[in-house]
Amino acid sequence: MEAYENESKKGFWNAEEDSVLTNYVKKHGTGKWNRIPKVTGLKRSGKSCRLRWMNYLTPDVKRGDFSEEEEDLVVRLHSLLGNRWSLIAGRIPGRTDNQVKNFWNTHLSKKLGVDKKKKRKACVTAKYIPRVEAGERDCKSASSSKGKLVHESWSDDLMELGSMHEGIMRDDFGCTFSFPNTVFDLCTSPYCTQSFHHSFFAL
DNA sequence: AACCAGCCCAACCGCATGTAA
DNA sequence: CTTACATGCGGTTGGGCTGGT
User: Which pLDDT tens digit goes with each residue over A49-106?
Assistant: First the structure.
């Protein structure tokens, strides 16, 4: 395997490589990414193959600019989840975590005047949301498997969020939210994230 | 036309997490 | 329980494009 890693090519993918990868996935499905270079002779790491498929070759991936609805959704979900790009992307059909992340970093953070220095903290806090979604009440006791302290930014807000298991929220703009959500029923309205965040945690 | 600065976004890197042996 | 490996995620990088001078 290391031999494949060592000789793996980097940089932009060409049409031929895309075609090889697409054919492989059509035949074998996703997963076992590290097998791809061995089976197909593609000079790319498994990681690179996965990323290329997820971000570009997946048939339902949407290209082009974000619509106003999508933009609003990103803003709202980011205010709730922080930099959990994969979670945010999972709720915007056809958009990948990389697209959402790029869109946020290049357009929205500028537009909304987000201080990049504060980015990291929001991200750390949001790490707990999946556990809460999974119904894990005593999230404070959940530490990383390697014994590192990963929840230094744990907030009471999140504890409260955990206690709202299966609650349904409504903000000042009539937007509804459910927890733990399989569907965020986020009716779009222009940039009401601050109010949303305020009313969400005030309840 | 040539140069440059800034922007965009695809891809890479490092780390965390999951899981099979 | 431990270890090794695979996968997923978020942050960052850098090549190409575009607009300004």
Answer: 999 999 999 888 888 889 989 999 999 999 888 889 999 999 999 999 999 999 998 8
Arch. (CATH architecture) of A2-57: Orthogonal Bundle (1.10)
- Which ranges constitute the DSSP H helices of A7-150? 15-28, 35-40, 46-52, 68-81, 85-90, 97-103, 109-112, 119-126, 129-133
Would you list the domain boundaries of chain A? 2-57, 68-202
Instruction: From the CA of A134 to the C1' of C1: give the distance in Å.
Output: 26
Give how far the C-alpha of residue A176 lies from the chain's centroid of Cα atoms, to the nearest Å: 21
Nucleotide nearest to A31 (CA to C1'): C7
- Cα distance between residue A105 and residue A111, in whole Å: 10
- Measuring from the CA of residue A49 to each C1' atom, give the nucleotide at the shortest distance: B11
